Known about the structure:
407 residues; mainly alpha; 17 helices
Amino acid sequence: MMVGQGGTDAKPVWPLAEVFRAFLKLGLTSFGGPIAHLGYFRDEFVERRKWLDEAGYADLVALCQFLPGPASSQVGFSLGVLRGGGLLGGLAAWAGFTLPSALLLLAFALGAASIDSAAAQGVIHGLKLVAVAVVAQALWGMSRSLTPDLPRACIALGALALVTLAGSSIGQLAAIACGAVAGLLVCRTAPLPGGGHLAFPVSRSSALLALVLFAALFVLPPLVAAKTDSQALKLFDAFYRSGALVFGGGHVVLPLLQNQVVTTGWVAPEAFLAGYGAAQAAPGPLFTVAAYLGAVSGPQPHGIAGATIALFAVFLPGLLLVYGTLPFWDGLRGLPWAQAAMRGANAAVVGMLAAAFYNPVWVSAVHAPVDFALALAGFLLLVILRTPPWIVVLLLAITGATTHMVG
Length: 407
């Protein structure tokens, strides 16, 4: 199995177990939202494990930013497919990264969460500072390899401005599209970063089947639900449709979910807001708020059954789309014009990361000199001392709780 020209790690004896363990660790420690997750992934799989190289990772991020769905979960699923040898590897990665957060939110929905509010706020603030350090580390590393010359640095600056002015989902799509067009114009002679080749073990027939299934599940459930009056099918359709229509990550899915479950009367507004707050404190993808909403939904099924239906439904469309795209991606990027476009798109990814580093990562976390000092300490631990991210998470979470309670 090829892992990209930059990957040097040997194929493990038990690849599915390796994939699940790697993503379970991230699922337990990756706080800070989708942009921070991409930073965690880069540190773990590009820098530490060397499953793929910088160029291949940037290409994969650009692809997932283009598709609807949770971008960080799609990147993680794709890495699992790559390393684990196919669909089962992708599912192992998704389960390891997603289930910790989903179980925490299910426990919260069932009334099992009860912690001191002052300590909780301090821990949450410390985790936000972890996100500052992680995203700064990713920005530092990716900018050196993906914007090495003036044209690509200018593309990154343009993407930063576009995302900042146009808003999250529209700005992200426009930034990558404009970056690709700019790459066609000014990056034809520049070499691609070394590596980048990713041979995903997905057949074209399997990919086409995934795309057909995506379309069928988008069209058929509401028609069947209207005839059968099945609340389980209505619940599935509400969350599947939300996951299929969202661009820009977890925060963007919240208004879609609110329209599906609050306006229908399934979930009370105050319960919806409580779930959103709990999701901010949990590691892993924000899409796992679906487990909470499915559990507290008024009509049957709710509880564990409702949480299970909602959780799988909201992630399924994004995973089907990326799985259906993977086998065509590497062949496309091998064409000269596509290589030029990818140079520009990769530079735009750096600009998008820089925009997200400022807002929401920096502005939501750094409010005082001590916050800046803690974030800088986390950055130095990651970059200079090469401290494992989970240790940095623990240190800053404990420090945040302590300083908040003392203050």
